[in-house]
């Protein structure tokens, strides 16, 4: 097995080389081994900054702080000048940038931005339905887009820590109440009775009445999209960490059991566990990385053989990702992990590096080494 120090060197050396090329730009996914960028950060911009904050924690090299902050003007412009472009992924964008900055450096300017971001996320709360609206209406009159007025997605469970954190910092319980309400709503709708997860669930935006589940980025509405399953594991684990609500821990543990029961022998999941021909299906290295980071958080709250199972998975999957799904033998490839699967049904970002896959791989490594300040 590779020593974690070898993996850290791979991560930080490549990240430093990439930083010298990227300037203030925010990488999203690779094409032919080269990262393409999102102008305003899309939903993924925070992962590049978070990766650099983690690299600083892993090395103490302050150049990573400068790199993390280089992209701030883009995120600030988005928050203050074009807030209409923001959706529920405000948590992903600002937790791993400005919240991380405040946690690590005590930067008061970062604190202000992070709390302003939490306000924008809280404003998306639908009181009738007790949920945070996920996506905006992308195209007026388009039926799917119009349903976004009442849509939640499982990914939002990983955005809630921004609200929980804001409540702890300010003492304002409204943030926490909104986060708990959304988690409760997800628990009764988007989480199925067998502890698999829909990708999305639609409500009537006016009455708040639950309508139906959809799996937009998975194989089919009733299928088990592997990355969605990992968002559920980590999202409910973090919700438990902030609240102590045993119902959230129960969801996290059962969603973890589903994932571990279904994952492939090399521990890297198919992009969707329900595909009809697993032998030819694409893998999703990003889902493996998110699972590793999420299960390492979950180990804090369980004991015995259950904890050992999570630790074993996380340790082994980090090794497998490095040995079989990384670019550790290719200095020209800008990504850390290959074979990520972004949006299979749309044919977008398939079999490439994904910045969130890279981030969670680094988070899992950092967790194994006890470096913990950045996390949600």
From TrEMBL:
UniProt EC number: 3.2.1.179
Superkingdom: Bacteria
A Pfam family the protein falls into: Glyco_hydro_88
Enzyme class label: hydrolase
GO molecular function: hydrolase activity, acting on glycosyl bonds
InterPro entries linked: 6-hairpin_glycosidase_sf, 6hp_glycosidase-like_sf, Glyco_hydro_88, UG_Glycosaminoglycan_Hydrolase
Family in the record: Belongs to the glycosyl hydrolase 88 family.
Keywords associated with the record: Glycosidase, Hydrolase
Protein name from the UniProt record: Unsaturated glucuronyl hydrolase
